[in-house]
Amino acid sequence: MSATITCLGGFGGKGAAAILIETDGKRLLLDAGGALHPGETLTWAQYLDEHALDLDAVLISHDHIDHIGGVDKLAPSVPIYCTPLVAKALPPGRVWHALPERGRCQVAGVTVTTGQAGHSLGGVWLHLAVAGGIFYSGDACFESRVYPFDSPPPARLALLDASYGAYDTPQRDCLTAIETHLKHPLALPVPASGRALEMALWLGEEADRRCLGLAIAPVIRAHLATLLTLPETLRRPGVTPAIEALLAHPDAPHPSLYLFDDHDDTAAMWPRHRLLHTGYLTPARCAELAAGQIFLQRWNVHLRASHLVALADDLGADVVVPLFTSLDEPNTSVWRHLLGRRFTAQRTLSLPHSHRPSLTSWSMA
């Protein structure tokens, strides 16, 4: 089957993820992201409405707002596919169909393979068996202590998480940098189903080593407990005893370290703690950072540059589209250097049905 791929959202910068795949008369949407900033227009939903495009299915990679937060913009009749854990983040009463955490299924006549993406609880990458293979990483990471990353099948087209751009600092260096902040009382807001789980383990060990009080928000504890109920192959080898030990340890009544689910907290809400962010900052938080009101130190939860290239190599991809990152200069020159002729900054691609082609057989609209 041939395919046309249109990056409706998440292209050219951090934003609501939405990739339209049109193949054999079917339309599949990969992710239905919500706005990261108040008042932001969901251009992908606007595009579907303006062109009166009906969808045969929507596949959700994971439960973070920029990948699932726009589901309410879809007609109730559109079938939603996601893993059972991700389904808990759907609007109440929304009907859904199960994707395997690791496996294969049929969606609107298309064979879909899923695997663990190393980023979040219940999160998966998606591989569509059309036109030689289309791989969509969603958000992905090789470095998680908790979540495994599964090697995917070959794919001619790779739509890859490039949230970090050319950044390539190893996780161990990030942890060393965070350690310098532990001498202060810290409040750490995090996505509860993402980096929260592995940060909880690391903070628990550091708190014990430094004799510091630690408190972990109930929702994060609940997610850790949920992780233990899953098949052991859905978490990294050897991590189970550390999770069990952490859950058995009660919260400190007056913690020096507090890990909690992010609800747009500001520095003013934490007068006795230094507010340390470890991921994406909204424009309002960028202003707080510039004013010295909050602190930032990345904890790797996305593919860094060398890992993105390694994944493209593993897939044997002919064309690679870096998603969730700027594609203006000088960034395009960086991607050309890293990916060579595989790199494209085209929003729409047409992939023919034939033998595995060279790059020149692609049509880029």
Characteristic key phrases:
alpha/beta; 24% helix; Rossmann fold; 365 residues; Metallo-beta-lactamase, Chain A; six-stranded mixed sheet; 10 helices; eight-stranded mixed sheet; 19 strands
The total tally of domains equals 2
Q: Which percent bin holds the helix content? A: 10-25%
Q: Mean of residue pLDDT? A: 94
CATH class value of the largest domain:
Alpha Beta
Poorly predicted tracts of residues = 355-365
Q: How do the helices and strands follow one another from N- to C-terminus? A: EEEHEHEHEEEEEEHEHEHHEEHEHEHEE
In the sheet with the most strands, the strands line up as 6-5-4-3-2-1-18-19
The quaternary organization reads as single chain
The main sheet comes to: 8 strands, mixed
* Overall form: globular
Strand content: 15-25%
Q: Which class best fits the helix and strand makeup?
A: alpha/beta
